[in-house]
Amino acid sequence: MRIRATVAALTGTLALSALVVPAAQAADGPSSTPRLAAKAEQAVPGANEGDTEITKVTVNGGKDVVVGTSNKVTFSVAVTATDPEGIGAGSAFLYHGGSVDTADGVLAPDDFDGKCTVVNATTSTCTVTVVADPKADLYNGLAGSGWKVYAVAGANDGDSATNEAYKSDANVQRYARLTTNASPEPIKKGKTLTVTGALTRANWDTSKYAGYTQQPVKLQYKKKGATSYSTLKTVTSDSKGNLKTTVKASADGYFRYVFAGTSTTPAVTSTSDFVDVN
């Protein structure tokens, strides 16, 4: 109920901001302000008025939003819109779920007044800044691609547009960590080398890091003096996220684990571990 009440309040706020903000910039001057303010009070979220059109919405420049266990992450949402009389305002928030009415998570800007940059006489891009707080806004079930954008735009003549379900072009992901340790060191050529590691990721429910289990992780090797790594094998993380495998020592070189990532968790490469072979 709290999430639904929050979303309802946000949709109302955006509907008002899209209509009231352009009022001071309207072509027919200050006398239009009372008319637009009255119109805003009657605004129905999701209803378009006039020939305003939202043409594009971009979350975080199209890059995934990666959040750990404690630090707040700031990112932008840009709303591009067009109207024959020009665009005076735009704003947006993110929600998670099938529709805005059934949202189970929300990420919203503190300031709904987007900073608008004119593209040309009819088009502007308005940008808001959103802060994702892992301790207040997120839980594990919200990770991944299930985010949508509720966007609004207001034209200089008082027209407006609303799009309730722009699919986000960025996932919201749980930050990942990956380690590598090869032993024993040094080692004689031809002997067995054990390479261990751990794949963990942020747990938003506990504010701690926990093992990412049953995930394929590549073990890579680069011979000393070489310029690139080669993949030796793929290792699956165990029930605690741990990694362990063995290889034959052949020459001085570097070992590392590489995880390709999933929709809920970003790709991550461990720091390499150098092994002296004699």
Low-pLDDT runs: 19-46
The topology string of helices and strands comes to HHEEEEEEEEEEEEEEEEEEE
Binned, the helix content reads 10-25%
Fraction of residues in β-strands: 35-45%
Distance from first to last alpha carbon: 66 Å
What can you tell me about this protein's structure?
This protein is mainly β. Helix content is 10%, strand content 45%. The chain contains 2 helices and 19 strands. The chain has helices spanning 2-20, 33-41; strands spanning 53-59, 65-67, 73-82, 87-96, 105-107, 115-118, 123-132, 147-155, 160-167, 172-174, 176-183, 192-203, 208-211, 216-223, 230-236, 242-248, 253-259, 268-269, 273-275. Strands 14, 15, 17, 18 and 19 form a 5-stranded antiparallel beta sheet that branches. β11 and β12 form a beta hairpin. α1 runs antiparallel to α2 (33-41). It starts with a helix and ends with a strand.
